[in-house]
Structures are given as structure tokens and as C-alpha cells.
Amino acid sequence: MSISAKDVKKLRDLTGAGMMDCKKALVETDGDVDAAVEYLQVKGMAKAKKKAGRTAAQGLVSVWTNADATAAALVEVNSETDFVARNEQFISFVDTVTTALGEAGVENIEAAESVKIDGKDLETVVQEQIATIGENIKVRRVHRFEANDGFVGTYIHHGSQVGVLVAVSGEKNDTTEEFARDIAMHVAAMKPAYLTPEDVSEEAAEKQAGIFHAQLIEEGKPEKIIPRIMEGKMKKWRNESSLLEQAFVKDTDLTVRQHQDQVGDVKLTGFVRFEVGEGIEKDEANLADEVAAALKG
């Protein structure tokens, strides 16, 4: 039967599916628009399930804060390609998810599963986006800070590839707000792993000590002086890994701790830094295999 362009456009407006998919759906349902909507939903969700297994290492980080900045949430949502990450629909989806998780008080990704968005659970909303956008999408992680005796500073780096939350105790005013934002920008640039040297885990310290010891052996250092050298190296490494002991990026003559003391009446109590795709093992595609698969359809 003949399918009109008007019906194709109507179906596209209703579903967001591609023009050719809409035309095929109308052909399969004898021009019944309602049936075509259901057809696309069924087909789209089936495809979405298949796409959900593909690696998603691109995407965006986004932040939500409440009115007085006493609570904030940092969220990472992944896509397969940078092209989709720049898509207005994906950006809007990330904003919607971030707001929903922030307002729901979600503290981790496990708790996010029960959050409702427009009456649907998060998994359903994600699957619908996969079906519409055509790539695997994953709400990967969320971190929340609540600072009852202070506030939370935030920073999203250009391109929304890096996001930071900084929890601060103390009164919120122009000076302390500037301090929190400066520290959040510092965290984005310098990537500290810990707040203080005392926070360094034993596991991490043992691993780093093993690396230093192997390096010193390789350099031919006498075994009897290695412990003394190791002591200095480990102290330096702990300081460089810790936010408060790092050189402050806006004034490298000061550590972050010294800058905090200069500002006064404010204390850093925690931070978190998300960078899109960090820690995800990327798929190494074989070009020949991809071309062969494309030729096979």
C-alpha cells in the first residue's frame, strides 16, 4: 500500500525513530499509526537489549545542587561515541537523569535503580533512549555530598568531560565560595587521590613501595641505603597524592592546606572527581573485521 509522507512525519514526531524505520513500520502495519508506534517500540527495545552489551566509554558528567548548595550530586552517563555525547537529545537526557537522582537523594548507582523518571524506572528510561538514539547508554555512577555544617562547591570542566564536588565546612560567603570553586578546579587539574596523606590506603602504599623498590634495584642502589631512600620517596608520593599537601595551582608557593589556612574559617572535608570513561577498558576494533561485518549487512 501507499504510505504518505504526512503519516511518516507523524510517526517520526511520535517516536523519534528514523524516517526509513517509520516508513517500514507503517508498511508492516498497513498504515495504522498506533500499531506502527507499538511496532517500533517492540523492535526498538529488542535492538536496545542487544546494544546494551556494547562498550560505552564516551559521554558526559553532570552536576546537581540544591538551592543553598548544602547538597550536590555528580553523575556520569556514558555513550558509545563522542558524536552522540554532543547530541542535544543525549545532553537533555543526562540533565534529566542528574536532576532526578539529585532530587531523590541517591548516594550511589545501586540506589539509582529505584528512582522514577516520568513514572518509569531508570532502566526502562535508559532502554528507551538506547532504542531512540541507537547506541548503548549507561548511567555509570553517581556520588553525593551533603554538608550540613557547610556547603558543596562544584566544577564542570569545559566539554563536561571532568566534574568535581568539594565538600567544605564553614559559612558560605563570597570568599569561601571562591575558595571552594578554586579547589574544585585544582582537583580537576591535579587529580589527587586522597584528601590527606593519612588517607592513603595500605594497599596503595604497599603497591607503590614495591614499584619504588624495584626501580632502586634497577638503578643499582646498594641494598643498605634503599630503606632511607624509600622513606623519602614514599613521603613525597603520599604528599603529591593528597589534595591538602599538593602545591596549589593558583599559587604554587603554597600548598592547598596553607591556602586554606590563609582563607580562614573554612575546611575541606572531602572531594570527588569524575572523568568520563576513566577505568573503562576500551574495545580495540579490528578494521578488517568491521568492514567484513558491514559488507555482510
Structure, described:
- This protein has 297 residues and is an alpha+beta fold.
- Among the domains are: 5-51, Orthogonal Bundle (Helicase, Ruva Protein, domain 3), CATH 1.10.8; 54-146, Tetrahydropterin Synthase, Chain A, CATH 3.30.479.20; 202-238.
- It is built from 12 helices and 10 strands.
- Strand 6 (150-156) and strand 7 (162-169) form a beta hairpin.
- The two termini are 27 Å apart.
- Residues 45-52 and 293-297 have low confidence and may be disordered.
Fraction of residues in helices?
40-55%
CATH fold type of the domain at 54-146: Tetrahydropterin Synthase, Chain A
Radius of gyration: 25 Å
Number of helices, where a helix is a run of at least 4 consecutive DSSP H or I residues: 12
* Main sheet: strand order: 1-2-5
- CATH architectural type of the domain at 54-146: 2-Layer Sandwich
Would you tell me the overall average pLDDT? 87
User: Which structural category fits the helices and strands?
Assistant: alpha+beta
Please give the largest β-sheet. 3 strands, antiparallel
Q: What series of H and E elements makes up the topology?
A: HHHEEHHHEEHEEEHHHEEHEH
What is the secondary structure topology, with strand pairs?
Layout: H1 5-15, H2 19-28, H3 33-51, E1 58-65, E2 71-79, H4 82-85, H5 88-103, H6 109-112, E3 116-117, E4 120-121, H7 122-133, E5 138-146, E6 150-156, E7 162-169, H8 174-190, H9 202-218, H10 226-240, E8 247-248, E9 251-255, H11 256-263, E10 267-275, H12 287-296
Antiparallel strand pairs: 1-2, 2-5, 3-4, 6-7, 7-10, 8-9
